Every structure is written in structure tokens, then in C-alpha cells.
């Protein structure tokens, strides 16, 4: 298969894996959620003390290993970085805040929708809205600058992190925290989760599927190529759920697992996620895959995600099935405004730099 059909198939693999993992024990409508899984890992490492979301998710380890090994074998492992690392960290930080107000990353949003959760449809509207705002900055010249070649050893940081996390998961030392109840206590068997995570990592690395990229390209260049990956995730996830998880399939807004029905904040939380994702050049799962194949800038972004998760739970920003706390609502509004100001500042600096180059060229020509 070639082109859009191949992209649809890669997306389908991811969607099907999500349905299988939920069947095997992962939390409801959370076969795969990069934001939630990094949040759980942050809790397991003691970065936050929300006892119901502390677990070293083997799917993340599998994604890291899968993306690393396939990129290394195919020559895609390239160690580059240095493109506005502090801005990337801050955007990753706020992206996670938005995701935890919505209760899921963009991938979980699609998988929630594939299991009947219509709150995800509201989130999808917000996500597309945030991406649309981000593309306005892109059209005005927004860029975080070029990355440059980095020491090769830097590219092995995330594979090493994956190994360390796997050791902690297996031996369970006393200083690693594991939930005894709630979503953090729920998970598919470790070996299967690792293997299926690796399948997802390989699929994502080879296809370059990105939820933000799919919608960004439609808005900017009317190209639907990457969108077919998202359609594949939804279609195969839907079929997988109807076959494997029909007893939990629930079409509607109410009584959805690990979700809330505050539509405004589902929408605005994903506006923040979409805005940050398009300005970063990729959604959380894309950043995780890029970090695993040597992209140091994406690695900084993932650290931002982890710290955003810790901050959200330590300071009462994260939503729950009971709703969105006041601190979370404030943080989302502040995040949208702050990230927009940062993007505007980058555009202004880029414009000044272009003007200086234009003046120099004019003087040379004169």
C-alpha cells in the first residue's frame, strides 16, 4: 500500500492497539494516552502525590524502544537540537495543563470518541480551533529556529530513560510509588503492554502520524495525507471497541470513564493543547517519538510535559470526573494568553530579523 492507504493502515494499527489494551485492563477509554501516561510516570517518580495516578506505564517504555530501534536501523536516528529549548519546555508545560483539564491527550481524544464519548467531540472542536490559531502565527513567519547537530550521546538519553523505567517497573523499589486504586492501579499485563507499545512506536516512527500535523496541513496547504492516519485510528478503534469492548461502549456525554461534561473547559483545554502542539511542530505522541529518535528539542518538550503534569496535580489544576477545579480554569486561560504572547513575540523578532537582512541586501545592491 502507498500514500493515504498506507497512512490509514498505520493509524489503524494504533487505534486497534488502543482497543486491545483497554480490553486487557487499561483504564476505560484510555488504551493509549500519552499525557495521562507521562502523568502517571511523574507520579510514580514522586513528582506529584496524587495517589490514584501513579504507575510506570510500560506502553511509554515500549513506544520509546520501538521508535528508537526502528529509527536506528533505518538511518532516521539523527541527533539534533538547540532550537529554542526554553520555549519548547514552556509550551510542553502548558500543553500538559490543557490536556489534564480535558483529561487526555489528542490521541486519547480520538480513542474516546471511538468508544462513544461525545465529550471528545467538544474537545476535538477546541483542538482544531487551537491549531487554527497556531497556523495564523505560522503564516506570519513564526519559527523556533533551526536545530543543529548535537553530540550523539545526547540522542541516547530517552532510550536510557526507558531502560531505567523498565528496571523500576520490574523490581519495584520502595522509592517508586504505585497506585493501589483508581486509574493508576489499572493496566494491561506488562509484557503485552511493552510489546504493543513497541508496535505503536514503530508505526508512529515510520508513518510520522501526528494529530496536530493532520489538521495543520488541511488548514495551511489543503493536504489530507496525515489526516488519513487519524481517520485510521478512529475507524479501527471504533471497530475494535465494538468487537472487544461492546459492554463498555457508551454513546453519549454522561457516565463516561475518566471524563467530565464541562463542555466549555473541554473545549478551551484542547484549544490550549492545539495551540501548543502546532507551535511545537507536533502533538505529545509525536514529541515522544521524536525524542526517542534523537531529537533533543523534542526531549526538552517531553520534560516540559512531565513537569506540567507534576505542577497540575501539586497545585490542583487537573480535572477529574467531578469537573474542573477553579485553578485549572484559570491556568487554561492564562496558558492561552501567555502562549499567544510568546508566539507573537517570536513573530515580531522574526520580522525584525528579515527586515535587517533586507536592509543589508539593499545596501549591497546599492
- Number of helical runs? 14
Q: Which segments are poorly predicted (pLDDT under 50) over 5 or more consecutive residues?
A: none
Q: What share of the residues lie within helices?
A: 55-70%
Would you tell me the structural class of the helices and strands?
Answer: mainly alpha
> How many DSSP-defined strands?
2
Summed up, the domain count is 1
**Taking strands numbered 1, 2, ... along the chain, how are they ordered across the largest sheet?**
1-2
Q: How many angstroms separate the termini? A: 55 Å
- What is the CA-atom radius of gyration, in angstroms? 20 Å
| Silhouette | globular
The ordered H/E elements are HHHEHHHEHHHHHHHH
**Average pLDDT over all residues:** 95
Q: Per DSSP, what share of the residues sits in E-state strands of 2 or more residues?
A: under 5%
InterPro entries: Seleno_YedE, Sulf_transp_TsuA/YedE
Pfam family, one: Sulf_transp
Transmembrane segments: 7-25, 55-74, 86-111, 117-135, 156-178, 184-204, 225-244, 264-285, 297-318, 330-347
Keywords: Membrane, Transmembrane, Transmembrane helix
